[in-house]
Amino acid sequence: MFERIGNGWELAKSSYRCLLLDKELLVFPLLSGLACLIVLASFTLPLMSSDYVQTIEEDGQAPSDPMAYVILFLFYFCNYFVIVFFNAGLIACAVIRFNGGDPTVGDGFRAATARLPQILAWAFVSATVGVILKAIESRSSRAGRIASGLLGMAWGAGTYFVVPVLVMEKLGPFAAVKRSLSILRRTWGEALVSNFGIGLFVFLMILGCLVPAVLGVLVGSRIAIVAGIAVTVVLIILVSLISSALSGIVLGALYLYAAEERVPPQFEAASFRGAFVQR
């Protein structure tokens, strides 16, 4: 267990070193976050005065009107498209770095645009699954939430490598899911320690972000408190961008190791052997 925790930490540090080489990769999670906010606003504002929101608030469940699920599908579709598009660009840049190149933001956008049909198709599939899970969750209380949660976890695990597969292998959505499952079956270990390593890495950074706010409170003046909180908020936003970038970088690296049995030069081979246990 402690060895795996150490491997996860090493993966997180290696990913961070890669990010230091290509700081421009932060543009992808930044634009992704802004685009997701635009999508959220575009769907939230019209719905605030609609019957759909009132039905949800009064009954505690999704409305039975099929139009509500159509709107939910469109929201999921746009949201998934934005997330996958920018993640595809980030992973493409990471792979260029792993292959010895010097990626630019333009390289990422060109790679993502070249996979536009696959990304659109995958967003459609993901939105469909999301609506189905939401329908299961809303139709019955506790049992529905449990079933939806378990199915969502299984779907997330099975599609773990879909985005790098879309980027690298140009497969359609169903072939990408099949390929992702194939990679997992061949190299699945007891745990993917990278997520834990990045989580621990980000947690420690968040603790550091709280220092300005704490110092502002200790000083006690209104200006110091406002300034401290403002600095903390900015730092937390920056950490969230770093966290998203690290996740994309390590996912690209894990894909290369799992699919091609090749360790990127920026990573230690021992860390990957701890992330995946061959069977």
Can you give keywords for this protein?
mainly alpha; 12 helices; 279 residues
Describe the structure.
The protein has 279 residues and is mainly alpha-helical. It has one domain (2-275). Helices cover 82% and strands 0% of the residues. The chain has twelve helices and no strands. Helix 1 (2-21) crosses helix 11 (222-260) and helix 8 (162-169) packs across helix 9. The radius of gyration is 21 Å and the shape is globular. It starts with a helix and ends with a helix.
Topology of this protein?
Elements: H1 2-21, H2 27-47, H3 51-59, H4 66-98, H5 105-114, H6 116-139, H7 142-158, H8 162-169, H9 173-187, H10 193-219, H11 222-260, H12 269-275
Helix pairs in contact: 1-10, 1-11, 1-12, 2-4, 4-5, 4-6, 4-8, 4-11, 6-7, 8-9, 10-11
Overall pLDDT confidence: 82
Number of helices: 12
Percent strand equals under 5%
Strand count, sense and barrel status of the largest sheet are:
none
What form results from the Cα inertia axes? globular
Order of helices and strands: HHHHHHHHHHHH
Q: Structural class, from helix and strand content? A: mainly alpha
Number of strands: 0
Short note summarizing the structure:
With 279 residues, this protein is mostly helical.
